[in-house]
Amino acid sequence: MPDTEKISSKKGKTGSVYSIVGVSLVLLIMGIMGCVFLILHQLGNSFKEEIRISAYLNTSSKDTIQQIQQYVTAQPYAKDVQYIDKAAAKKIWNADNNEDWDNILDYNPLPESIDFYAKAEYVNKDSLTHIGQQLQQTFGDKLSDITYPQVLVNSMNEKSTKLGFVFLVVAVVLSVIVIVSIDNTIRLIMYSNRFLIKTMQMVGATRWFIAKPLDLRAIVNGIISAIISIAILVGLLKWAVSQFPQMGVLVDNKLMVVLFVGMVIIGVGISFFSTHRSVMKYLRTRLDNLY
Q1: Summary mean pLDDT of the chain
Q2: Could you tell me which of 43, 40, 51 has the C-alpha nearest to residue 124?
Q3: pLDDT tens for each residue of 165-224
Q4: Sequence-separated (6 or more) residues with CB below 8 Å from residue 177
């Protein structure tokens, strides 16, 4: 009997190691895909937030200009609000067009404006149209026009929608693969313990008594697997940022924490579910059918 207990103990430890390694690898793949998605999402947002919106002024009153600037600054959609006078407008135009009109014109035809950038969630046709209408209604003829690169905004939103759909499909497929892979890994481990489970039942142990330690081990293994995969993922991220420092601004710590929590929940949840289901299956199976 002591030899049997030692063999069972060794098998249990070996099974736990295989389970932890297998689940860790699957969760790591899931985490890498999640990081890629989050970084691309942040990259798209950063492009959107570089689109300049100009509210052209039809007034020279400094008080009115200050009032408009303060109003735009207070809005939830606005960031980096600036008053652009004629000289600043000329510099921007020359920089964008790579030329200077001083040899052609002896005056500056560009109007003054309040320029700002919108937060990423507002950079779409409907939101920007609503923002323009709101400003026009608030200040009336004090604003001559509100412009932004409409073609660029529409193009970016179309591409981000397509890319989001592609990643949604990939995420669904990956989630199915992750769940099936972890489930199969746990079921293989439990298959090697089927006779031990059945023997405990035959000597009078209740289902709860048999399942409880295995379920607890599954929870612990799931947590360990998630910690290992998260540690490797954090190491890979730090290495990537060290190689490409510009990636640092694209890593949103809050979103990464959400991803890590999701990895823990998936690792623990599937490990527990698969283990408990396998235990119940072998408890209901006749001894002859276990061979």
Answers
A1: 80
A2: 51
A3: 887 788 788 778 877 777 777 777 776 667 667 677 677 777 777 778 888 888 888 899
A4: none
- CA-nearest of 219, 165, 233, 205 to 20 is 219
Read off the pTM.
0.70
Domains of the chain: 2-46+156-290 (no CATH), 52-148 (3.30.70.3040)
C-alpha to C-alpha distance for 197 and 220, rounded to whole angstroms: 19
- The one-letter amino acid code at 252 reads D
pLDDT tens column, 218-277: 888 889 989 999 999 999 999 988 888 888 778 888 889 999 999 899 888 888 888 887
Q: What are phi and psi of 285, to 5 degrees?
A: -85, 140
The pair of structure tokens assigned to 131 is 């923002």
Residue keyed to tokens 């779409």: 124
Is residue 251 within 8 A of residue 241, CB to CB? The reply is yes
Provide the angle, in degrees to the nearest 10, between the axes of the packed helices 253-284 and 207-243.
150
